[in-house]
Amino acid sequence: MMNMMKSKMRSNRLEQSPAAGRSAFTLIELLVVIAIIAILAAMLLPALASAKVRAQTTKCISNLKQMQLGCKMYETDFNDYMVPNAPLGSTPNQTWCPGNLGEDWFVSSDNTNRANYQASILAPYMNGQVDVYRCPGDILESQNGPRIRSYSMQMQMGCLYSKYKVQGGGPANLAGYNPGYYAYVKVTELGGSTLSPSDAFVFCEESMSTMNDAFLQVDSTGASGFFPDVPGAYHATSICGFSFSDGHSETHKWLTSALKIPTIAGQGYGTGGQLPKGVNIGNADWIWFTHHATTKIN
User: Fold this and answer.
1) Distances in Å between the alpha carbon of 263 and those of 210, 230, 260?
2) pLDDT of residue 140 exceeding 70
């Protein structure tokens, strides 16, 4: 009788034991689970990367919109004169942003000196904001830190203080650049036989392959065979942000390899040349870019 009771007690303990009836995962089962997790991660990561690009692009468009609205307020206060452009050597209190030294991959003070931007002629219309001058997709730093500015004003806009000559009483035409093409001083010069304000871009991202001043050169004649200053592609290496004279901003996707240039730290301006070369007047990106910058003087 005693032996039967002891045997029943042992049986009950086995039934109540957490380990009773439980089997461990086999190595194959673990490998299958790991493989499934890896597949799910591989499917999810591109979606996350795409979402990040979309978020950066939305912020970029917002930055350009704010800059362009600041310009519109300036134009209202100054009888339709565009905010002056900022070629290399310009001073902050005469142009839309500082250009006394220019940005580079190294230690230029223009890379990080916020005070110069707050002293610029556009600053009062931006409520002292400085962060809007940087594209969120521009993530590679210079040697002295993150650069303040990723955007430049294309050279055919804001030509009040740029070197120019007037032909036949019409809009100013920059001497030495794009002879025979409009260079705009006042916003009222747009429209009619020339570009409409909704088609004329003012600011865009500039690639660090040519970034220095805030005056983005445009070769409308195609004589050079390349982009003297290169518009950016900070979003998925193919999308560039633009603002237009009417106040709106948008992105444009480059169609050819000419402008799908990944940003590489240290490559470009000040390190041995400008990119890209070998672009002819039939290139689709060159056509879109130049046709939204200016038109021929009739």
Assistant:
1) 11, 11, 10
2) yes
